[in-house]
Amino acid sequence: MTNGEPPTGEPELLVADRAGVRTVTLNRPHRKNAMTWAMWRDLADVLRDTGGDRSVRALVLTGAGGAFCSGADISVPDARHPMDKLRIFTDLALQLHELPIPTVAKVTGVAVGAGWNLALGCDLVVATPEARFAQIFARRGLSVDLGGSWLLPKLVGLQQAKRLALLAETVDAARAEALGLVTWVIAAAEIDAFTADLADRLAAGPPVALAQTKALLNEGADSTLREALAGEARAQGVNFATADAPEAYAAFAGNRAPRFTGAWSLPPAGGEKESG
């Protein structure tokens, strides 16, 4: 275990695809899924690949062995300059934030430091009642990272963000839900089925429209009303050029579930329709 490898010999990052849902599992349970710098880099690569894979329509990020992520593993030596390591953080945080598909963090056990901010970087957070969260940086003589300084004030307001970051208090799942930092608290026996159903529903949605909605909401907090309305108008123009809007109307009229593909419905310059 001293070399940071999973005791089972499995990879430290597990990637599994099922029916349009990609599940990425942090796999160092003996260290509560504390992340080595190689894992941070590899996760950024997975997110980049996921963003370019049209077969993936929702992402679930979770941890193995009853924990989500205990942050960066500072016990594993790494000779790189600290600024090089932090560039990995920057790349990963942006990849997660800009991913054009819905993302879900499934949190069991601890999510602390950069591990908590990794969960907060997802669009939705599902946690068990036993989950515990902390912006632990101050206890380590550090300041917040992995986007925490941007995420926390937007999610909980400036004063509560300062309380969480300056005091490094541990927050239970119920308190995190009350603050708006957890979307659902689900019993441990039910969280796998709940998250799978949630991911399936997201993956079945209109991919182009969901990607644009996610981007609009991410940008909305920093936009004026005029800018937000202009962005919405541009996005709707794109949506009407896909097959999904007419499919939604046809499904409603036919009393059936829609089958969204994100296919482009406008003919190209040559006059033939694209297949998607």
Notes on the structure:
- This protein is α/β, with parallel strands linked by helices.
- It contains ten helices and nine strands.
- The strands form two sheets. The protein has a six-stranded mixed sheet, sandwiched between helices. Strands 5-7-8 form a three-stranded mixed sheet.
- Helix 1 runs parallel beside helix 2, helix 4 crosses helix 5 and helix 8 packs antiparallel against helix 9.
- The longest helix is centred in the N-terminal third of the chain and has 17 residues.
- The mean pLDDT is about 90.
Note the main attributes of this structure.
42% helix; 10 helices; alpha/beta; 14% strand; globular; 276 residues
Q: What does the secondary structure layout of this molecule look like, with pairings?
A:
Layout: E1 13-18, E2 21-26, H1 37-51, E3 58-63, H2 82-98, E4 103-107, E5 110-112, H3 114-120, E6 124-127, E7 132-134, H4 148-156, H5 158-167, E8 170-172, H6 173-179, E9 184-185, H7 191-203, H8 207-220, H9 225-239, H10 244-253
Parallel strand pairs: 2-3, 3-4, 4-6, 5-7, 6-9
Antiparallel strand pairs: 1-2, 7-8
Annotation, overall tally of beta strands? 9
Strand content: 5-15%
Q: Share of helix among residues?
A: 40-55%
Distance between termini?
A: 47 Å
The pLDDT mean sits at 92
Radius of gyration computed on alpha carbons: 20 Å
By secondary-structure content and strand pairing, the structural class works out as alpha/beta
How many DSSP H or I helices?
10
* Helix and strand pattern: EEHEHEEHEEHHEHEHHHH
- What can be said about the biggest beta sheet? 6 strands, mixed
- Give me the side-by-side strand order of the main sheet: 1-2-3-4-6-9
Taking pLDDT < 50 over at least 5 consecutive residues as the criterion, the unreliable ranges are: none
- What global shape is seen? globular
